[in-house]
Amino acid sequence: MATRPGPLTEWPWQRMGNFKYLVMAPVVVHGAYRVMNKGWGDIDLAYALILPSLALRMIHNQIWISLSRYQTARSKHRIVDRGIEFDQVDRERGWDDQIVFNGLLFYVGYLAIPNVRGLPLWRTDGAVATALLHAGPVEFLYYWFHRALHHHFLYSRYHSHHHASIVTEPITSVIHPFGEHIVYFTLFAIPMLSTLYMGNGSALVFVMYIVYIDFMNNMGHCNFELVPKWMFQVFPPLKYLMYTPSFHSLHHTQFRTNYSLFMPFYDYIYSTMDKASDELYENSLKGTEETPDLVHLTHMTNLQSAYHLRVGFASIASKPSDNSEWYMWTLWPLAWLSMVVAWIYGSSAFVVERIKLKKLKMQTWVVPRYNFQYGLTWDRESINDLIEKAILDADVRGVKVLSLGLLNQEKQLNGNGELFRQKYPKLGFELLMEVA
After folding, report:
1. Which of 63, 167, 245, 360 is deepest in the core (most CB within 10 A)?
2. Are 369 and 401 spatial neighbours (Cβ–Cβ below 8 Å)?
3. What one-character DSSP code corresponds to residue 138?
4. What residues does CATH 3.40.220 cover in the chain?
5. Residues 222-249 pLDDT 10s
6. Which phi and psi angles does 403 have, rounded to 5°?
7. What is the pTM of this model?
């Protein structure tokens, strides 16, 4: 919530919980009615893309969430080196509200605008017009609307909700009050409505434009620098046409600079670019390796435990692992695939979480093996090799304490860690066993 919430703060389906997806029921019912009465031939391309495009957007966003959390746990290219509070996790759990909202508006637009029906798959002139309309009116109007949102009146009633997240995640990009999203959709509709009016709109260009918006939003808020320097060296004007995660991160830490949407040239034109932008970009790319004080070495439990990790799904992780939801069965193929990949290519433990408690730096490392694999006699040697490699890596990095968790300390495996104590008597850290 904003500090002083104004009108149109809450989403219309705020109190519906997970039943909010029912607001898309008219799209399904209408489509089923048309198919039953006139057959599949009555469903044109624009209508057929509404629901699949929403599903793809959710998958796209989830990939960015998992990638960002994995990278900020292990990567040296973090921008803001702070943890995320539980309040932020709760505040940002409704990131799919804007996708549902967009889906409803696309459906209404399909019904209300005749030009939408019978759209061609692709129009090159429409793609060029969309790019120009975005770089011109959309970026310009967004820049000034964003500056207006930082005026005390609007900031306290609306935009402070977004800026409550200093340490951003990809989904932070869409965490705004409902009223703001109405304006944002109106701005992003300019290229789509304009090309429809000019007669050069196409279904694929609309989808690509929405993917572009999602991609840039997610990238700008991912909190690790990933844009390579060579891109700006090969094409120097690109720095005015594409922002970087570090560029937008300064907006969340400094508040009064770097207002642009995706193209920073308006910040250059109106002198609102943060002077530290280039320096932060260089430093974030260079990065600094972190030496943890304490490492807890654990492993996967059941096949679906990956979904309960920080890099998994927040909605699943918020529930006990033995509380299987009905939709979990749809994730079994992915769980089996991840197990096979980890078994074949999992050559070392990986970092899944990092925590700072005052000056104490802690990390959780995971051996890429599951509970049942620890019971396989023929696989024990490879598991011990993974644990040994993690121990040696911790020693090289200057870790002070490493604890073996769960089955990593099993007596039949390594004698409660005694195997490693005898093999490496001069380890530079204390090797502890987890006590149940």
Report:
1. 245
2. no
3. I
4. 294-433
5. 999 999 999 999 999 999 999 999 999 9
6. -110, 135
7. 0.93
